[in-house]
Amino acid sequence: MNEEFISLKQIDSANIIFNSQDFQYTNNRKKYADKIEAIWNYANNFSGKSYTNSNIFNVSQVKWVLPRQIDISGFFVEYKDYLAQKRDKTIKLDITPLGVSGIVKTYDQEDSEEKILFGKRTSNLTQYPNHFEMVPSGGIDDNHIENNCVLYKESLISEFEEELEINRNVINEIQVVAFVLDKKDAVYDILMNINTNSKIEPNKERKNNEYSDFIYVPVAGIKEFINQNIIVPTSLSILNI
Hints:
The chain is α+β, with helices and mostly antiparallel strands. It is built from six helices and 13 strands. The strands form three sheets. Strands 1, 5, 6, 7, 8, 11, 12 and 13 form an eight-stranded mixed beta sheet that branches. It has a three-stranded mixed beta sheet with strand order 2-4-3. A two-stranded antiparallel sheet has the order 9-10.
């Protein structure tokens, strides 16, 4: 993946404000409703894959308050709208989802070296199947809202517990690192460091729809790992800096 497809800005903090769907989006969605349903039905009944129609956060505006602080506003849309937009370029909904991505870096006492945790995405995912990425990672749903503010760190913690099957009590601190735009797939991500009080061991025996395997990669061996595997562009852009 060329670097030209990734825009990355280092930040210290972000505020995410939830608004109701705007008039233009609602009208456009009605216009494409039949196409959206047809694509969704085909994807679930004839593609050999199964998708969940959850709500995802769609970015409508990004405002830089300070050089390393941003305000993001947007509203929730159905995942099937985004899938339809990806599958049929005539569907113009201008959906730009916002997700969260974590970096779990740990010091391995036994090997006396720092390591970063990666997961291998399963083959049935819409974006970047069979790619490696730093974990946890996921979308922002509507389960973590307080006074119209989206609690995106809580979203990341939920992904941490769900994907790795590890209790949040091991987390000491979550630090905002960067704001990333994948221009190819039109997806934003807030990237955060997850500092833990001990080395964590994901449940590798667990089978889920997101990851088929987990692996710790030594920081000293990152370049070799990149050369030998296919990496999600967002993770790759961070590793390159």
